[in-house]
Write a structure and sequence with these properties.
With 482 residues, this protein is an alpha/beta fold. The chain contains 17 helices and 13 strands. α4 runs antiparallel to α5, α6 packs antiparallel against α7 and α6 runs antiparallel to α16. The longest helix has 31 residues. It is elongated and about 95 Å long. Bound molecules: guanosine-5'-triphosphate and magnesium ion. Magnesium ion binds next to α8.
Amino acid sequence: VPGNIKDCDTIAAVATPAGPGGIGIVRASGPLVMPICRAVFQPAHPLKEPESFRLHYGWAVDPRNGTVLDEVLCAVMRAPRSYTREDVLELHCHSGPAVLRRILDAVLGQGARIAEPGEFTRRAFLNGRIDLTQAEAVLELTRAQSECERAEAVNQLEGRLKEVLKTVRAALLEALARVEVAIDFPEEDIEFLEPSALAADLSERALTPLQALLRAHAERRILREGARLVLVGRPNVGKSSLFNALLGTGRVIVSPVPGTTRDIVEESIELQGLRLILADTAGIRTGPLDPVEDMGITMAMGEMRRADHIVAIFDLNAPPEDEDVSFLRSAPPAKPVTIVLNKRDLCPDWIRRAGEFTRRLTSLPAGGDAGGLSAPPQVVPVSALTGEGLHELKSAIVAGLLAPAMREAPPQAFVPNLRQKQVVEGAVAALGRVLTALEIQDPPELIALDLKKCLDEIETVMGTRHTEDLLDMIFGNFCIGK
Ligand SMILES: Nc1nc2c(ncn2[C@@H]2O[C@H](COP(=O)(O)OP(=O)(O)OP(=O)(O)O)[C@@H](O)[C@H]2O)c(=O)[nH]1
Ligand SMILES: [Mg+2]
């Protein structure tokens, strides 16, 4: 928040990296910039005052004794149309350590102080030229090593993330205003707090865009670091065989005995340029089991929660029973799943069979939040033994991990950074509670609490405050005095 005395100082720093180079820049920002410029810069052609946004040729001098320090170009950017929204001075000189030191020293001698790291950009934020996401983008731009990082940071600097958050914030403020009215006027029949309409609105205008941000973040991480893939299914369906087939080696034991695999075995592979860690697991079944197999099953369930993508394997020749899909219920909601129907070589009629199988799978009761099957997953019939269908499976896996846009043009719009992602997760969690509360018609006070929490998170990302805005919203949009 501006008002801090330190934010009124004139700051100065060398803006270019240390060491000999073509050009070095000394930059200053703040109220003393014009007098500093008059004292330190001696124009080659007499000027009353350097014009804003022009380069002026001349000399940098030490005002204390008139010593000429270097031949320079001087640029002045007058407030408020500058990087910091304050008066800004840039002296472009020859980049030598002694030159830069002397020019900076001359500027400091006129009443500026040395800038702290990032202070110019911080002022741009404090003075409202950019929001926090853009300030962070500047930092990311200066750090970007790859083309992908650069493109994402520029995207964020242009304000894409800010725009998304702004619309989400507007939706949250509107919802909060409606809820606050319901709190203030409980006796009135307020048609605008119609819970299901409000929930639908919030889900579309807030939850969906926030989830898209998180997905974009996950996809970027997958592009850079690779993804975890887990093979799960009932015993003997051919998980280990498929693991070996994808790897192209006989890495793990395959046998006709159900319950062969106990430990989790991991190997890394590359599919269409994507790095993947593939995990084979113990077949999941219930009933009296020996303790080692039981531990294996627990580990398999844990691996399902950890993985970025679940490959659920079935034996095409054994029609699925209720129990066969039950293991998918322990998958976290919305975790992407690919269904593999294995052993198609044993079934001459496998195309028709696969159709039946898919219909049966999707009609089985998936359970409350069996997120895995809530969106229709891709179904791929294969034979781990002969390798038929493996190519299709690989494509399906890659498609499941990355949205097509991401594969063709990797840097997708507005990918949040880690800090932003964590805060957005908090917002999504709070929003989830709001939607549940609306559904079960909790008192508006409770709903308001989580809405505010969600709003706080969004504003933490943007770096704004909301109390004034909220009041404006209530009085601006509703006819309270009625
Ligand atoms: N014909 C045929 N047999 C297969 C295929 N895939 C696996 N099998 C056989 O099915 C049996 C079980 O294979 P595994 O790969 O060990 O099965 P799993 O799912 O890892 O079994 P557990 O580790 O016990 O859970 C073995 O005898 C395999 O040779 C296939 O595509 N076609
Ligand atoms: Mg196995």
